[in-house]
Design a protein that fits this description.
Helices cover 75% and strands 0% of the residues. The protein starts with a helix and ends in a 5-residue tail after the last helix. The mean pLDDT is 88. It has 5 helices and no strands. By secondary structure, it is mainly alpha-helical. It has one domain.
């Protein structure tokens, strides 16, 4: 539990915004906490997922697609954020394992 305690702040900050994920990344540079690194990858992936699909949807305006994107993002974000607050290493459903593979540059 001591390992999680040190990285909990970085893990929670990562979920706030894309800038928060970058701040959390810099906060974790020296300590290299595994718990924080896990949640930084999850949050960074969620924020990129949202931005990529928002750019895609901006070309074809469909209100229902936007609703779907926001609902999906908020549910996944809430799941990850509650996991970070609770000190759990639960990956985000469906996309979480991919985020851990794709963002290995986050140490």
């Amino acid at each position: 539990m001591e390992d999680k305690k040190g990285g909990k702040t970085s893990a929670v900050v990562a979920y706030l915004t894309m800038v928060g994920a970058l701040i959390a990344l810099s906060m974790n540079m020296e300590s290299k906490n595994a718990f924080a690194r896990f949640h930084i990858r999850q949050a960074f992936g969620l924020h990129l997922f949202f931005l990529a699909f928002a750019l895609f949807l901006s070309q074809w305006f469909n209100v229902y697609a936007w609703y779907g994107l926001y609902i999906c993002y908020l549910v996944l974000w809430g799941y990850g954020f509650i996991g970070a607050i609770g000190g759990k290493l639960n990956s985000v459903p469906v996309l979480g394992p991919y985020f851990q593979k794709w963002f290995t540059f986050i140490h």
